[in-house]
């Protein structure tokens, strides 16, 4: 296709407004898949995405469309995740496109992530086409929502395309808008090759698969290329596109998106944001690349079985290849042995990575208490970043500690505003702004990140019956009265459960953790004392009574096979436990104990 008949676009929207459904319809309408191949939400191909009904990874598809002007166009679509934890994924997709379809649910209107995403698209210099989705719903109010888009976002919505992604109504209108309203990419086919590494993942047979966007020049099979920042050179084995199936092509030119493989087995050779150049005719300047992502939540990940440490290391490297917003480094814990300190963009991100490690790499893991990054100012004048509560220096060496704050934007129907304001003030929030958009309130708050990471999002959803939406940005550090709370099980310190909290919350959270652990740790043959302490001072305590029977006792009589099964089951359960002194703590207790309610 000539470059002026290429359109590269992202679909952006608040979660559940219909991005993935629209992507399905576009693929269907342009014949990318046969009816038999067409499943629901084809682009959410990770099991985890299908189960949770959310998009985690950005996906790309090449569509071919014959427009009303009689010409064939190549449309490259990127579907993006909507949850705030995956904003980094969104920013990367946007950098690979010239325009965005902004999908807004016509029965819900503009939500917090609609705003956050649209601002990112504007920043990326995108042309934006507003799409009003779900007009089939009786509750749809397209005219009102158009007005909202103009008032809140400041975008002209008079030409918004009204559709139902579910019924397929006016998908043609979306395709025409892409062709007539978005600009074609720019690029020079005769200049030396420059291609942006947008994403990458590891395939057992092909090695590293690299998703690219070509800026200048061409990339073809057999060509020797170089990763500009990493320095490694490779011979291109396969060039192709997703339709969404992988289909090989001869080459990719300026403005095109697709993948390459080059039998790369060392995952460290590839970095998202790097520029691919021709080895014999190298371009001088790299492409702008991406802003590095900065993890805001850290936790330790340890194999349940210590023999899995090397496997965990390899798996983390492969996962990192597929998720540049995830960071890790080796660490050790007195209680858990060898493991890794891992950084995430939020708690959902943490849960997803943990689950992917268990499913895709078959690893049983223990996650320690998630923590934000504190700044410790020592009396000696040194300042250090604290990623792990277990590393907190002795109070006598601390002059003061700073904690990270965020600026949160919350949108909520008027009826639930009171509950949201209460929640924010319980979490030490400071109101910055409160305005109205129709009968929806938009509250802007400054909140300590520490009060948000564990369960703020869940609480927000529950006190507003799912109607509140939320987005946040980091907003600097401020001094705070913070203490470390240690957890002791039968007198032994479990360093993996230590956490840092504001002094005013310490007792409540200490008590809550002890109560949770009491339910989460199974009874054992002796009494177990669970204590929370600040320094040497115990602030909460629970006791688990002793148990004397073994599990087979309840099988009266002689059903041997049943008895054996029970013992097997008990052994299986043991694998997922960790020994602390004499006490066994199940893997599930570690994260569950930290979720407040
Ligand atoms: P995403 O989170 O933006 O990717 O949203 P999804 O595409 O997963 O859609 C969220 C939900 O809205 C799903 O249950 C869809 O079936 C539903 N949905 C999407 N588009 C429409 C539509 O046009 N009309 C109706 N009634 N429901 C829709
Ligand atoms: Mg989706």
Automatic annotation (TrEMBL):
Domain Tr-type G: 4-186
Gene Ontology cellular component terms for the protein in this record: plasma membrane
BP term (GO), one: positive regulation of translation
Reaction it catalyzes: GTP + H2O = GDP + phosphate + H(+)
Binding site for GTP: 16-21, 133-136
First-tier enzyme category under EC: hydrolase
Annotated keywords: Cell membrane, Elongation factor, GTP-binding, Hydrolase, Membrane, Nucleotide-binding, Protein biosynthesis
Cell location: Cell membrane
KW Phosphoprotein (keyword) present: no
Protein family according to the UniProt entry: Belongs to the TRAFAC class translation factor GTPase superfamily. Classic translation factor GTPase family. LepA subfamily.
Role description: Required for accurate and efficient protein synthesis under certain stress conditions. May act as a fidelity factor of the translation reaction, by catalyzing a one-codon backward translocation of tRNAs on improperly translocated ribosomes. Back-translocation proceeds from a post-translocation (POST) complex to a pre-translocation (PRE) complex, thus giving elongation factor G a second chance to translocate the tRNAs correctly. Binds to ribosomes in a GTP-dependent manner.
Protein name: Elongation factor 4
Organism name: Limobrevibacterium gyesilva
């Amino acid at each position: 296709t000539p470059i002026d008949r290429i359109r590269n676009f992202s679909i952006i929207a608040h979660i559940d407004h219909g991005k993935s459904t629209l992507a399905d319809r576009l693929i269907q309408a342009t014949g990318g898949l046969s009816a038999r191949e067409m499943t629901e939400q084809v682009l959410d191909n990770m099991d985890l995405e299908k189960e949770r009904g959310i998009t985690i990874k950005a996906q790309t598809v090449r569509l071919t469309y014959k427009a009303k002007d009689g010409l064939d166009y190549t449309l490259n679509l990127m579907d993006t995740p909507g949850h705030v934890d995956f904003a980094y994924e969104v920013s990367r997709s946007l950098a690979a496109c010239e325009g965005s379809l902004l999908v807004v649910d016509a029965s819900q209107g503009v939500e917090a992530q609609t705003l956050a995403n649209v601002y990112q698209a504007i920043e990326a210099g995108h042309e934006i086409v507003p799409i009003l989705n779900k007009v089939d719903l009786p509750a749809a109010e397209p005219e009102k929502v158009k007005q909202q888009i103009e008032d809140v976002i400041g975008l002209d919505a008079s030409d918004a395309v009204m559709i139902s992604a579910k019924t397929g109504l006016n998908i043609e209108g979306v395709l025409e808008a892409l062709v007539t309203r978005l600009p074609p990419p720019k690029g020079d086919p005769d200049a030396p090759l420059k291609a942006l590494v947008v994403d990458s993942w590891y395939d057992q047979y092909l090695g590293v698969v690299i998703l690219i966007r070509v800026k200048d020049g061409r990339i073809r099979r057999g060509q020797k290329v170089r990763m500009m920042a990493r320095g490694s050179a490779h011979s291109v084995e396969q060039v192709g596109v997703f339709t969404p199936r992988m289909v090989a092509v001869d080459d990719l030119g300026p403005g095109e998106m697709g993948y390459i493989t080059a039998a790369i087995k060392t995952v460290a050779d590839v970095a998202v944001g790097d520029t691919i150049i021709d080895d014999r005719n190298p371009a001088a300047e790299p492409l702008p690349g991406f802003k590095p992502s900065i993890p805001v939540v850290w936790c330790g990940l340890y194999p349940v079985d210590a023999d899995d440490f090397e496997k965990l290391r390899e798996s983390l490297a492969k996962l990192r290849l597929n998720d540049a917003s995830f960071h890790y480094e080796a660490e050790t814990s007195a209680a858990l042995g060898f493991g890794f300190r891992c950084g995430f963009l939020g708690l959902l991100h943490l849960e997803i990575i943990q689950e992917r490690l268990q499913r895709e790499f078959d690893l049983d893991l223990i996650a320690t208490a998630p923590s934000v990054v504190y700044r410790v100012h020592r009396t000696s004048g040194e300042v250090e970043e604290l990623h792990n509560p277990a590393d907190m220096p002795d109070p006598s060496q601390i002059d003061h500690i700073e904690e990270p704050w965020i600026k949160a934007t919350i949108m909520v129907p008027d009826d639930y505003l009171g509950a949201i304001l209460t929640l924010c003030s319980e979490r030490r929030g400071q109101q910055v702004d409160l305005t109205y958009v129709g009968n929806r309130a938009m509250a802007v708050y400054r909140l300590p990140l520490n009060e948000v990471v564990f369960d703020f999002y869940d609480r927000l959803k529950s006190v507003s019956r799912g109607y509140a939406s939320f987005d946040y940005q980091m907003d600097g550090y401020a001094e705070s009265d913070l203490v470390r709370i240690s957890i002791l099980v039968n007198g032994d310190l479990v360093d993996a459960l230590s956490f840092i909290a504001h002094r005013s919350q310490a007792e409540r959270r200490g008590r809550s953790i002890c109560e949770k652990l009491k339910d989460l740790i199974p009874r054992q043959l002796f009494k177990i004392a669970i204590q929370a302490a600040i320094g040497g001072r115990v602030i909460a305590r629970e006791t688990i009574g002793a148990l004397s029977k073994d599990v087979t006792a309840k099988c009266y009589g002689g059903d041997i096979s049943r008895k054996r099964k029970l013992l097997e089951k008990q052994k299986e359960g043991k694998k997922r436990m960790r020994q602390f002194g004499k006490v066994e703590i199940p893997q599930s207790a570690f994260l569950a104990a930290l979720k407040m309610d």
